[in-house]
Amino acid sequence: MIAKLFSRTPKMPMVGLAHVCSQVWHANRPFFVTVAAYAVAVALAAAYWQIPLDPRIYSEPFLLFGGGVTCILFAIVATRVMLERPERLLPCLVRRLLENDLPNRLIIGLPVALILPVFFSLFTSMKGGLSRIVPFYADSAIIAVDRMIHGGQDAWKILHPLLGAGLLTFALNFLYNLWFVVMLIVLFCVTFSTGDKRLRSQYLVAFVLTWVLLGNAAATIFASVGPAFITPFYGDDTFSPLMKYLQATNTVYPVWALHAQGVLLANAALDGPRLGSGISAFPSLHVAVATLNAIYLWRFGRVLRWAGVIFLIAIQLGAVHLAWHYAVDGYASMLATPVIWVLARLSKDPGMAAGGYARSDFDLG
């Protein structure tokens, strides 16, 4: 009897592990394949153009963010349970977590969460080395197109009578910086979603393709620096009035964009990738991700739908007003991102059902 017991116990974890691996693979196969293909392309490009790679740039920031979000969500669930005054707190808390499909969320979401910082690190490494592939050249042509669209004027001059007040500039800069938080929150919710598996997969693949096709490929083809950097890179003072306005506003209201632009410019003179390094204007990745989130959130009720649209508009306005981008950079992103969304839908796993697990309050998918 004892011999039979010990002879069987090693097999059970293996069966469980095989099932878990299969579940992870089928839930995330399009995402895994897309990231793997990108990693191979990055390795080949880095070897050919001698671009230094660092796959660990975002490891610590993602760990801190993931840990922070986990603590916040746990605190929310725990607070709800305590307000119900159960006789036995711990069993009730465990039951509530399991009701929200926690095991399945961790099984399908954790591998993606572990891969994302590597993906972002490779992306940043490549972005920092794009000028080794194609030196910056396209700003004058982009400015010409931008002026043609806006009746012969730079877009920021059209917006300035509406936005050229210190408090509005500060508000736009706050929202522009909030983009990072919003992006990560939506990405985190989708990653650990167990609702519509097809929608989850489509978003994750579209997210990666948006960064790769627009943030790396298109940014290389249309190598440009943007209004904030046109003077140091080209000696062109076309946008000096805008920069002087931002600097003057910064004496009253903080304009964090100026500090970030200074850091990017300093990093451009250094060798090797760093957190958030790399200068690129066309197309706007900020606007592209905001567009992707607006498309995704459109199906989740009126509040999230219009919050996504309003946030997209704010990011487009901020990109121009804070001298990060030409207006056409954002227009291109808003046109290209829906195409990427459709392409991502074509990459779905044939065996993936539209449904999946039971939905819960924590699902965005």
Fold and architecture overview:
The protein is an all-alpha fold. It has one domain (2-58, 110-346). The chain contains 16 helices and no strands. The chain has helices at residues 2-8, 11-49, 59-83, 89-99, 102-128, 130-133, 139-149, 155-163, 166-191, 197-221, 230-234, 240-249, 256-268, 285-297, 302-321, 327-346. The longest helix is centred in the N-terminal third of the chain and has 39 residues, at 11-49. It is globular, with a radius of gyration of 23 Å. The protein starts with a helix and ends in a 19-residue tail after the last helix. Residues 1-15 and 355-362 have low confidence and may be disordered.
Topology order in helix (H) and strand (E) letters = HHHHHHHHHHHHHHHH
Number of strands: 0
Question: Based on helices, strands and strand pairing, what is the structural class?
Answer: mainly alpha
Mean of pLDDT: 86
Number of helices: 16
Sheet having the most strands: none
Terminal residue distance: 48 Å
Shape: globular
The parts where pLDDT drops under 50 for at least 5 residues are 1-15, 355-362
Radius of gyration: 23 Å
Indicate how many domains the architecture comprises.
1
Portion of residues in helices? over 70%
Instruction: Report the β-strand fraction as a percent range.
Output: under 5%
